[in-house]
């Protein structure tokens, strides 16, 4: 039996420049971190005593005799791509709901690939794991996805990720003194709008509109460097990050008509009215989680103002996807 543990993520700056439609022409960069919320995938070879070959347990339970019959698109695609001949039992659990902007789809892909490799007795390096997950999602599953989520899930940590025009990437850990890092984390609030959506569908309008808002993407990319500059200067007030997040959100919301809606705008404005300095919707938009940046002393005011929303405390995490249990079974 194998259990993989793969972190979810928050993207702070540069989101959108990690789509191939942009970075293959212009290059891109993101500033983002994995967080201490995870998806867990349990995987084992299924004994041959059952009338089915595969058993998959997530929000539903599937029992099938061929991988092509699996309804879960990622599991079906990955098993077919890996040409797995033996029967499998797969369980998926997560700390946060799927389709909410925290990179759960890519964390699942990375975690499942990591688990399958381990089940076969193979170790996979972080770079290879990220590249394989990107290939599976973009080329096999044909999803409209960027590349930051897979890289973050594989590597973990708080990183600047540079996306090159040749599809290569550089992962540069952001090193801050402990006090600065704690201060940054203590200013964040994560609120769930209660709305889930399929990011690959939401982002279609954004990708179609890239050429019309290229100046926005250029500025979104520049904000990565501006934010890093703020973080690296201990005498610069940390609240400047909140101001840059607000500026980034104003740009992001204009990338397409699908990113925000009246409900999201109302929540965001309520947060600002209660004292938040800035924030953003996470992921592709149209629902999911909203991240606020506010001085810790006003968090209770924001919490009361948005008490109808589920609020999730979190911290950055450093490790990326890993195998937390390896226990080979003897079934053949």
Structure write-up:
The longest helix is centred in the C-terminal third of the chain and has 19 residues, at 214-232. The chain has two domains: 2-174 and 317-326, Ribosomal Protein S5, domain 2, CATH 3.30.230; 178-311, GHMP kinase, C-terminal domain (Alpha-Beta Plaits), CATH 3.30.70.890. Helix 4 (126-140) packs antiparallel against helix 5 (148-155). It is built from eleven helices and twelve strands. Strands 1, 2, 3, 4, 5, 6, 7 and 12 form an eight-stranded mixed β-sheet that branches. The protein is α+β, with helices and mostly antiparallel strands and 332 residues long. It starts with a strand and ends in a 6-residue tail after the last strand.
Quickly describe the structure:
With 332 residues, the protein is an alpha+beta fold.
Based on Cα principal axes, name the global outline.
globular
Assembly level: single chain
Helix content: 25-40%
Q: SSE order, as H and E? A: EHEEEHEHHHEEHEHHHHEEHEE
Radius of gyration: 20 Å
Q: Any idea how many domains?
A: 2
The low-pLDDT segments are: none
Strand content: 15-25%
- Please identify the structural class as seen in this structure: alpha+beta
Which architecture of the largest domain per CATH?
2-Layer Sandwich
CATH topology call of the largest domain:
Ribosomal Protein S5, domain 2
CATH top level class name of the largest domain? Alpha Beta
N-to-C span: 13 Å
* Number of separate strands: 12
Q: Total number of helical segments? A: 11
* Sheet with the most strands, sense and barrel status: 8 strands, mixed
Tell me, rounded to a whole number, the average pLDDT. Answer: 94
